[in-house]
Each structure stands twice: as C-alpha cells, then as structure tokens.
Design goal:
Length: 177
C-alpha cells in the first residue's frame, strides 16, 4: 500500500508542521499499544480485579485520545476534509495520506508553573487526537494540500483520474498475485 505524508502550511506560523513517514497501520498500532499500557496500569491500580477489561480500556482511551470533529465534502475532482484542532500548532500535528484514507494525529504537552515566595504550583496536561478518515474515492497522492488556520486543519485532496492506479499500487498487486 502506497502512502504519502504532506506538509501542512499555516499562514499563522513561519514553519511547516513536522510530518513523519510511515504507514497508517504503524501509527494506529502505536496508539493501540499506548492505550493497552494505560489500561493495564488502570487494572493494576484497581487491585487487579477481573471483569473490568472493557471499562479499563475505555477509560484509557478517554484519558489518552480524543477525536477531531471532522467535516468531509466532495466536489467533482476534489475531496476536502476540515478538522477542528484547537490548541494544536503545526509542530503538534502529523497527517498521513493513503489512496483511500487519511490519518490525522496530534500531540501537545503543556506545562504551567506558578511560583510565588510561599507556593510552588505546577500544572501539566497531555492532549492527543487520532482521527482516521475513510475517503469516498481514490486520491492522487502527488496533489494534496493542507493548511492550518485558526484551529481548523483543512486538507484538500485531488481525486485520482478514472482508471489511474495510485503510485505503488501496481507493485503491491503484482507482489500479491
């Protein structure tokens, strides 16, 4: 399966978002392992009681992940995805595009210290999003544009021409035959 990372442009910042290469499955496995580790920690903290597996898993997911509110629209030759990602900057987001799927991942760590003469106060928070969007049509991986403006990530994908094989697909089919 062929995939492509895209650089997200932002009129609000001088640097593009750092985007890492790799398959969507690899990224989803990373998230799954993080949730599994946290669910096991919850299991241990709860006295290792059996029968709460689903509750532990769902609690871990709620603690670690949230989804981005997304809107998908389709025109003749393009597909547009708008994802609400308030509080995330370009450096916090990663986007991976495959011919029929888009994965949006984000992670932000915030730490606030408030020190006075008598008191030291520190607040930390981690927020993550992981959103997979199935596309209604195959897209051209060489013609993808993403922008981040005012907390909204907009991804514009050009549909592949009818009968066009996405890059890497013909090699994958030949290897599977």
């Amino acid at each position: 399966m062929s995939s492509r990372e895209i650089t997200i442009q932002s009129p609000d910042a001088a640097e593009p978002i750092e985007v890492h290469r790799g398959g969507i499955i690899d990224r989803i496995e990373e998230v799954w392992h993080a949730v599994a580790r946290r669910a096991f920690e919850i299991f241990e903290a709860g006295g290792k009681q059996d029968g709460n597996d689903l509750d532990n898993w769902l609690t871990a997911e709620r603690e670690l992940l949230s989804t981005a509110d997304t809107e998908l629209s389709e025109k003749d030759n393009e597909i547009t995805i708008k994802a609400q990602v308030p509080g995330f900057s370009q450096k916090d987001l990663k986007v991976l595009v495959e011919p029929q799927k888009v994965l949006i991942k984000g992670h932000v760590h915030e730490q606030k210290d408030n020190k006075t003469a008598d008191t030291v106060y520190s607040e930390q928070s981690d927020r993550q999003i992981c959103q997979s969007v199935d596309l209604p049509a195959t897209v051209n991986l060489d013609n993808v544009n993403a922008t981040l403006t005012g907390g909204v990530l907009t991804i514009v994908l050009t549909k592949a021409a009818a009968g066009q094989t996405p890059p890497g697909e013909s090699a994958a089919k030949a290897a599977g035959d």
